[in-house]
Specification:
With 377 residues, the chain is α+β, with helices and mostly antiparallel strands. Helix content is 37%, strand content 21%. The chain has helices at 2-17, 27-34, 63-69, 91-100, 117-125, 134-142, 146-169, 176-194, 210-213, 257-276, 284-296, and strands spanning 21-24, 46-49, 54-59, 74-78, 107-110, 129-132, 200-205, 229-239, 242-252, 309-310, 317-320, 334-337, 340-343, 347-350, 353-357, 362-364. The strands form five sheets. The protein has a six-stranded mixed sheet, with helices on both faces. The chain has a three-stranded antiparallel sheet with strand order 7-8-9. Strands 12-15-16 form a three-stranded antiparallel sheet. The termini are far apart.
């Protein structure tokens, strides 16, 4: 039923824009509509929607996987081994051959953000007019249904559990990678009991020390934690495709007075953002609420990113809580709330929590203490 509704939405887009077909290249969108999620390296996978049927174009090594897991009417396969080379070895040619069989010609829906230049050029050379339909899909993905929200809530619980295990293990002499690993083990042990056969992925970083904490996205290393380190522990967890995020800034040993003051500004900024949330307000108001606290404290120039982003099948997906986003919050949207700033000589400061937008406010999905006295280890 869920997939049927998503497919109906795409076909309504086709009707509105007078498209002969839609070609989906974004793996998350393919998963969202067809139910098929593959490990994609160098071999393209295309998902097509026409008025009559749905089609997956897959490499030979994914053929059985696609037949077992996807909900489509037809599977077209291209091969890489000589025994079946005669049936087709080129993914774009396989796609074009199918498109040539359609009754309608002219316009075709594609996703400009994810479509390769090579595919776009081939479609144009075959006399297709390319129409971007990516926003229509992302608008549908932005509001989650109850099944999606249930999975995200479970992912949030597991992310919080892993964060707790990692922070409890943090100490002088442990490496950043070891901090990450301990939380990973905790969550995998838990999910093996509660959700047998679940697909779980874990992304986590723990940059330690003033200079490394200034880098919002940097990989953990074998660097050992030192007394007085400030650490931003950033954890994203995916359960059966759906993600939640939880992050905390903490100290190993007593922070300086300047660090304490900056930390309190960060906590106040996140709370201001949370207090502003309810369905109907422009998204930019959430960023404004957080940023005004940071600016008033004199850290505005160091608040170098938006105050949050939507999260679901992807860790970062539109819409975003940015200063220039006028679109309204809607019930059922899921966001991270993560205003942060990064001050040379003091450190980086960022908490992140995952929330669900409700009519009058929000539902907190992740749960871990955020105050200073809980985060000095």
């Amino acid at each position: 039923m869920e997939g049927k509704k998503r497919l109906e939405h795409l076909r309504n887009v086709m009707e509105e824009k007078q498209l002969a077909a839609i070609v989906i290249t974004d793996p998350y969108n393919q998963h969202y509509i067809s139910g098929f999620k593959a490990v994609i390296y160098s071999r393209p996978i295309y998902y097509l929607v026409t008025r009559q049927e749905t089609v997956l174009v897959v490499p030979g090594l994914e053929e059985e996987h696609a037949r077992a897991k996807s909900v489509v009417d037809r599977i077209c396969v291209y091969y890489e081994h000589p025994e079946k080379a005669g049936e087709g070895i080129d993914p774009i040619r396989t796609l074009l051959q199918y498109l040539q069989s359609l009754d309608m010609r002219g316009k075709i829906g594609v996703e400009f953000p994810s479509m390769s230049i090579t595919l776009g050029r081939a479609l144009k050379q075959a006399d297709w007019e390319l129409i971007d339909i990516s926003e229509a899909i992302m608008a549908q993905r932005a509001v989650k249904n109850e099944r999606e929200l249930k999975t995200i809530r479970k992912a949030g619980h597991l992310a919080s559990l892993a964060l707790r295990a990692s922070l409890e293990a943090a100490r002088v002499g442990i490496t950043e990678l070891a901090i990450d690993h301990i939380g990973n083990i905790a969550v995998l042990e838990e999910v093996s009991k509660t959700d047998p056969d679940a697909v779980v992925t874990l992304d986590v970083i723990s940059p330690s020390g003033i200079e490394r904490s200034l880098l919002p996205h940097v990989f953990s290393t074998t660097k050992k934690v030192e007394k007085g380190d400030i650490i931003i522990h950033s954890r994203q967890l995916s359960l059966n495709g759906y993600k939640a995020e939880s992050e905390r800034t903490f100290f190993v040993g007593e922070p300086t007075e300047r660090q304490k003051a900056a930390f309190e500004v960060m906590v106040s900024a996140q709370q201001a953002a949370l207090d502003s949330i309810k369905a109907g307000i422009p998204m930019k108001e959430v960023d404004k609420a957080a940023r005004s606290v940071i600016q008033k404290a004199g850290f505005g120039e160091y608040a170098i990113h938006r105050s949050g982003h939507s999260i679901g099948l992807a860790v970062h997906e539109p819409p975003y809580l940015r200063f220039d986003e006028n679109a309204p919050l809607l019930e059922g949207m899921v966001f991270t709330i993560e205003p942060g700033f990064y001050v040379p000589g003091i450190g980086g400061f960022r908490h992140s929590d995952t929330i669900i937008v409700t009519k009058e406010g929000y539902e907190m999905v992740t749960n871990y203490p955020s105050l200073l006295h809980d985060l000095i280890l």
